[in-house]
Amino acid sequence: MPKRFVVAASEFTDLPRFPVGFELAEALTAAAGDLHAKGSPGDTMNTAVALAVRLLPDAEHAGISEIQRGGRLRSLAWTDETVRFATEPRQGGHTPHPDWERLWTTPVVRTDDSEADGGGNVLSGLGLRSALSLRLRADRRRLTVLTAYARKPQAFDEDATRIGRLFTAHVSLALDSATVREQLTEAMRTRDLIGQATGILMERLDIDAAGAFESLVKASQRENVKLRDLARRIVDANSGTGGRGVTER
Asked: How far is Cα 74 from Cα 145, in angstroms, rounded to an integer?
């Protein structure tokens, strides 16, 4: 199951909405500070959707989704249940927003009125007339998209689009930074775990560090288990929490 992150915009009441006279640079600087203060990609996305509602003129809801080639979707963050429902996969996991496919080739897609041409789509059914979708990340296989929604038609004009693009540039940088931090943290944990497992095997098999590590690698390949997972199994078994260890063959 994909991990999902939910945050209420009301948790950020200290952040002003974007009033007339409040400098855009100052607002974005404050937003960037909040984004970069988060320790994980999930927390960064939580903050981003809440900030989108605070910063984008006329935005009432916001969400972040990941779209794979072929239209398959998973929702990563949303401000409320309306957005959660709007971005839930439909018909075998495919996106309920056909316009999102255009984000493979353009950084912004705007829906001025979901009830145009008779409505009958997910957004109009939820009373969401306007949407502003902004690309956060893209590679050959997937897109990450931040979308702001409003209940009135034509809510997002060129100014809102400009602010949205500046804001998502900050979100993208913060998300990349948080991802790198998370990967480095995981690498450190993995290194420590493998070190512990190697030490256990040295004592158990009466071999040196190189031999213990080689034994661990061979067992990983033989059992088709990631080295990290096998190391965790050994450490857990040694500490009495269960699991199978490594045996010589």
From this structure: 11
